[in-house]
Design goal:
- The chain has one domain (about 15-65).
- Helices cover about 65% and strands about 0% of the residues.
- It has helices spanning about 15-45, 50-55, 60-65.
- Helix 1 runs antiparallel to helix 2.
- The protein is flat.
Length: about 70
Amino acid sequence: MAHRGTVAIRGKAQRPLLLRALYFLLIGWWFSGLWLAAAYLALISVVGLPLAFWMYGRVGAVTTLYRS
């Protein structure tokens, strides 16, 4: 017997695709380069390792405004 239920969608609402595309073209591509360069500088020091890994994990959000 099949159960009927609801589908729960989790996650945050995303910004409109057009806004995200404009952000990527005008800001995101070069800002992500600066972000990765800063993450690399943090990676060089042992003290900055946690920050560097956090920054590498957030690069998609910096590049395209994707909310996770």
